[in-house]
Amino acid sequence: MPEHILVAGVDEAGRGPLAGPVVAAAVILDPSRPIVGLADSKKLSATQRERLAEEIRARALAWALGRAEVAEIDRVNILQATLLAMQRAVTALSIAPEQAWVDGNRCPCLPCPCRAIVKGDATVPAISAASILAKVARDAELRQLHARYPGYGFARHKGYPTAVHLDALRRLGPCPEHRRSYAPVVAVLQIILETHA
Asked: How far apart are CA 7 and CA 114, in angstroms?
């Protein structure tokens, strides 16, 4: 990557979970302040992610978060909500990037040229950095969600459809932060509806 081009790496966390927002991050790394250990956030431990997130926030030329809430996910679908969160992250940067490199195969609508890179979170440092910031921010939110709705185990599974989460969903029914457009949540709502019919 030529040093004179300001490239924002962009990635998200939270497409697969049944609850909570989808969170995106955009990061413009400083070529003069490299960060050792950047990788796909899913390949790192929580401790490694926290340490790297701190370093990214301190050393990057610019970074920003964007999000789409549960209501938006249910209204426009998860793909469109993800692209929206990415768009919000890029436009929130304090420095306007000349290009955006996005993890995956779809580009959000941006005011700069955009390139989609499949598995970019594992191969492009700026996208790895965005992946880490998005994951750390979303995990922190799900821990807060756990404090509000302790019965679901959000702190442990972060909203993903684990056996523990699905069991809690069946026992307790969905909370306000569950995505009503996702099949397992729809199924539980259907059962509740039939029970009270």
From this structure: 10
Q: Give the relative orientation of helices 46-59 and 125-148 as an angle to the nearest 10 degrees.
A: 120
- Rounded Cα gap, residues 67 and 81, in angstroms: 8
What's the pLDDT tens digit per position in 20-59?
Answer: 999 999 999 999 999 999 999 999 999 999 999 999 999 9
CATH of 7-147, one of 3.30.565.10, 3.60.21.10, 3.30.420.10, 3.30.420.240: 3.30.420.10
d(CA 45, CA 39): 11
Structure tokens at 107: 């580009």
pTM of the model: 0.94
CA–CA dist 80, 58 (Å, integer) = 31
Residue with tokens 């950095």: 129
Task: Output phi, psi for 167, to 5 deg.
Answer: -65, -45
Residue 35 sits at the vertex; the CA angle it makes with 34 and 38, to the nearest 5 degrees, is: 130
User: Helices 163-172 & 183-195, crossing angle to 10 degrees?
Assistant: 30
CA–CA–CA angle 79, 98, 124 (5° rounding) = 60
